[in-house]
Write a structure and sequence with these properties.
Layout lengths: L8 H18 L3 E4 L2 E4 L6 H42 L9 H8 L2 H29 L5 H25 L5 H21 L1 H15 L17
Length: about 220
Amino acid sequence: MNQKNFKFLTLITVFFVTVLFISNIVSTKIVDLWLFVFDAGTLLFPLSYIFWDVLTEVYWYKETRKIIWMWFGSMILLSWIIILVWYLPPASDRPFQADYQNVLWLTPRIVLASLFAYFVWEFSNSYIMAKVKIKMKWKQLWVRTIWSTLVWEFFDTMIFVMIAFYWVFDNELLKTIIISNYVFKVWVEVLFTPLTYLIINKLKKSEQEDYYDYKTDFNPLKID
């Protein structure tokens, strides 16, 4: 597969990183929506799983691995900039320093939680999705996406919520957030499975995928 022939990889990467940036910032607010109580980032965050399914299926693990590292670096930059601006002295006539702190004080911790959870979840999920894809001879995508969602989103949700909000909220609220996050993410993934199928099929035809040498493509820490 020659990357110069990719028509949509850059676009997908931009949308994916944008989804994660927005999710990590708005997650500072806990919302009560119908039967769910969760951080507001959960409204958008499940779309990132759909992007990963598309990336893994269409562009394979080699390209997905590069995007993981690009996202990882960009989120660290986001966190450091927020911390730096936090400690910069505000202008004498600016009355909103406390508002800035109240809104964004959790963001670096949320970014850390997101990085750690995603590092564990996505390297494992992308690797397993790609391996199972070969074992199943590229068939039954819905089995791979839903199975991986049921298993790995549980661990992702547990890791994220405990790192981001432990000692911030009481245990009862933490439990409610974990359950709501997990159920909502699984529901979105299952609901969007037909759309994921459609996008993957369209992209495969458009990108004219040539497959990698899979025996050399599964080192999760390799950045080439």
